[in-house]
Design brief:
mainly beta
Length: about 120
């Protein structure tokens, strides 16, 4: 590789998990998303894909995105999306009522500080 940047879209490094399915297969595989841009992503995982395979990637806060495998090297691969996405949206915390209901838990009282004492009950020493 040369030191010249040939990408037309800036990519940010990050760590997200995504579900990916190769078209013509019912199997869904969880992969790590190492780089994400509006036009594509670099994924890493135990997924057997070849250049040119059509895939569907389920990204957080975005949903299913279609694309084509652009390159493969060891357990990493690049996907060029069919349509641009808002990659910043995938970096945000989960949104929507279904996400809130899934991840809402009862507040924990295990690590809560006791309430402050009433000023009238305090005495000077």
């Amino acid at each position: 590789m040369t030191g010249v940047e040939t990408r037309s879209v800036a990519r940010d490094s990050l760590f997200l998990l995504a579900d990916i399915r190769v078209e013509q297969s019912a199997e869904i595989c969880r992969v790590r998303v190492r780089n994400l841009s509006d036009g594509g992503m670099m994924g890493e995982g135990q997924l057997r894909v070849q250049r040119g395979h059509r895939v569907s990637v389920e990204l957080r806060n975005i949903g299913a995105v279609g694309g084509t495998v652009a390159w493969v090297q060891d357990n990493r691969f690049g996907v060029a999306f069919d349509e641009e996405i808002d990659s910043q949206k995938a970096r945000r915390p989960l949104q929507g009522p279904e996400d809130a209901a899934t991840f809402m838990a009862a507040p924990s009282r295990a690590h809560r500080a006791p309430p402050p004492p009433e000023p009238t009950t305090l005495r000077k020493i």
